[in-house]
């Protein structure tokens, strides 16, 4: 699964998958790094990164992750896929609801022409056996619904679009 973190005002994408022993970071098409997180008796964490053991202290506060590793302190900020896609599309999440990951539509709660309020459920999708409800990022009118229940889509597909409410 793709994750995005901000570190030192730069955005970094990370592909991460689970393995029987822990996790695997996918650096590119051919390079991976195996990672295991081991809890020590004294409460410290030890990372085993490709066989190299590293002591670490990790704490979270909301979307922020604080890591103390090899005598250095790092602060990361997790960015939700919809927030990240909105930034990539110059605020497009306000007008276009894009798929944060590949999946399929379970239910569509609105139709073209419907008025919606910020936070109102638009559709429910499934990806990797996990359901995600996508909500309206602002008040508006549904301009188009591009996928029906049961249809599959790729990551970043335009699922539906909103337009401003006209008086």
Give a brief outline of the structure.
The protein is mainly beta and 167 residues long. It has one helix and 16 strands.
Write structural notes for this entry.
It is a single chain. The protein has 1 helix and 16 strands. The protein is 5% helix and 57% strand. A hairpin with a 2-residue loop joins β2 (10-19) and β3 (22-26). The chain has 167 residues and is mostly beta strands. The relative contact order is 0.13. Mean pLDDT is 79; it is low at 89-93. Strands 1-2-3-4-5-6-7-8 form an 8-stranded antiparallel β-barrel. It has a 4-stranded antiparallel beta sheet with strand order 9-16-14-11.
Low-confidence stretches: 89-93
The main sheet comes to: 8 strands, antiparallel, barrel
Number of strands: 16
Bulk shape: elongated
Strand share of the residues? over 45%
Oligomer: single chain
Main attributes of the structure:
167 residues, mainly beta, four-stranded antiparallel β-sheet, eight-stranded antiparallel beta barrel, 2 domains, single chain, Glycoprotein, Type 4 Pilin, OB fold (Dihydrolipoamide Acetyltransferase, E2P)
């Amino acid at each position: 699964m793709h994750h995005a973190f901000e570190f030192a005002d730069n955005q970094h994408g990370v592909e991460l998958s689970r393995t029987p022993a822990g996790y695997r970071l996918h650096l590119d098409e051919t390079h991976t790094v195996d990672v295991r997180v081991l809890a020590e008796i004294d409460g410290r964490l030890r990372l085993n990164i490709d066989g190299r053991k590293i002591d670490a202290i990790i704490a979270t506060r909301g979307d922020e992750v604080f890591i103390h590793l090899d005598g250095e302190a790092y602060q990361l900020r997790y960015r939700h896929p919809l927030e990240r896609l909105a930034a990539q599309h110059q605020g497009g999440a306000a007008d276009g609801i894009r798929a944060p990951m590949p999946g399929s539509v379970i239910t569509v709660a609105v139709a073209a022409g419907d008025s919606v309020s910020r936070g109102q459920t638009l559709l429910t999708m499934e990806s990797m056996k996990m359901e995600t409800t996508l909500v309206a990022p602002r008040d508006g009118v549904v301009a188009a619904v591009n996928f029906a229940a049961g249809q599959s889509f790729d990551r970043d597909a335009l699922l539906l679009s909103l337009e401003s409410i006209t008086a």
